[in-house]
Amino acid sequence: MTTDKKKLSLTSKVLLGMSLGIVAGFIFRTLLGEVAFVQEYVVNGLLQVGGEIFIASLKMLVVPLIFVSLVCGTSSLKDLSTLGRLGGKTLAFYLVTTAIAISLALLMGNLFKPGDGVDLTAATTFATKEAPSLGDVIVGMFPTNPINSMAQGNTLQIIVFAVLFGIAISLAGKPGERIAAMFGDFNEVIMKLVTLLMNVAPYGVFCLMAQLFTSLGLDAIVNLMEYFLVLAGTLLLHGLVTYSIMFRAFTGLNPLTFLKKMEDAVMFAFSTASSNATIPVTMETATRRMGVDNKVAAFTVPLGATINMDGTAIMQGVATAFIAQAFNIDLTFNDYLMVIMTATLASVGTAGVPGVGLIMLAMVLNQVGLPVEGIALIIGVDRLLDMIRTAVNITGDSVVTCIVGKSEGAMDVARFNNPNAGKREEEIHFPHGARPQAKNEG
């Protein structure tokens, strides 16, 4: 009797929660904005608590998921030269996509000129933290206390320790095999925990959207409408067209199938505005839906969430053009090349730094002699745009994961082409132990 009942997919539920949250937010802002009870107990009480618990729950999974998955993946490598090849390919693709993103952003920014005629009299002083040098970042990748690195959520240090630990397991013979088997079981349990959390996602997304749109003033968007549209349009162009071309060229697979399977991860990235918080969903999408082997995804996804900043690079390109136009400063061709190089290298050099987007933008502006105060102009709409660029960032992570996985022969193409592969209904309808096994899940 229940088999005829149509179930909403997770994507549909999250989209519904997002839509209802936006509507509720506008209602609270326009109709109930002066009601103290609503603001204190609903918006700043129930919605804030619900949203923060949801984000905290996702972040709770990040460190154990990165560590356990990466140890599983690395320890399964029989030839350690594979690890160097994996790392080289991954880093090269991430840097190339970032360079393409910033170039596209500068092109669009100069084509549509969103900064022409902008009034700068209201610009205020903007202060940002100084970004660490690339040398400091490289030294800082190696943890002195791995437990402390996990406690602080330092992704690069966790990745380095997990890789070294996985290599040690693969070289340790019989004891290593026993430890590897234990980590394999840990990995299954953590992925089950991810599945459990996905069931409450629509409610968490509703709380996040309702609170955001209660506080988001449309006047900020209207005043910067041209900048907003140029940046949002460039992000969508890169996310849908550039990635699709790359995906088709390097894998030979259908990019529409890829984009369809990215629905869940994109929804989570948009609603949380955090690549790190979305890692559990991106990892599950890459392995269970795309068919990429865990030994590849466990390396490329966490690394991408840390250093792959295509969406942020696009923001920097459009913002640089916008601020230059608003201050009536002409940039030379060499200045634009400097912007491209600085933003690409800064995507690695500022990895893991809080407020990374604005720090990177301040670095770029300083490099070409533009006033950092211009950042104050765009902060009003940055929160909403941050949601879009996070969705672009994790899409880029997944594209590179599939490209590297396919090139290494570590991608199950049949699973990728199967529209039902990895859907959570498998977990529900198949009895324990009878679920179809994915041969490349690692």
Automatic annotation (TrEMBL):
Signal peptide: none annotated. The chain crosses the membrane at residues 14-33, 53-71, 91-112, 155-172, 193-213, 225-245, 303-324, 336-353. One of its GO terms (cellular component) is plasma membrane. It is found in: Cell membrane. GO terms for biological process: dicarboxylic acid transport. InterPro entries: Na-dicarboxylate_symporter (IPR001991), Na:dicarbo_symporter_sf (IPR036458). It is a multi-pass membrane protein. Residues 422-442 are annotated as: Disordered. SUPFAM superfamilies: Proton glutamate symport protein (SSF118215). Keywords: Cell membrane, Membrane, Symport, Transmembrane, Transmembrane helix, Transport. One of its GO terms (molecular function) is symporter activity. It holds the Pfam family SDF. Gene3D superfamilies: Sodium:dicarboxylate symporter (1.10.3860.10). This is Dicarboxylate/amino acid:cation symporter.
